[in-house]
Write a structure and sequence with these properties.
80 residues; mainly alpha
Length: 80
Amino acid sequence: MNKFLDAAKKIVPVQTRVSVASITILLLVMAMVRLAFMIVNWGTFLRFRATDLAFSFINGARFDLHVIIALCGIFFLLVH
C-alpha cells in the first residue's frame, strides 16, 4: 500500500491532490450539516423509510458536488 501511495504522489500533481482534498472536505462538511438538520427535525423524518432517506442523502451529495464545482471550479482551473 505504501508503494502505491508513493507512486501516486509522483504521478498526481500537488494541485490536483489539494483540489480533491478540498472538495472531499467540503462534501463531508455539507453532509454533516445535512445530518444535523435531520437530527434536529427527527420527528418530521420518522415517517420516511430508511431507503428514502439514504436516497435523499445521495442526491444531496450530488447536488453539493454540483454547487462546489460551480462555485469553486474556476479557482480549481486557475490553480491547474
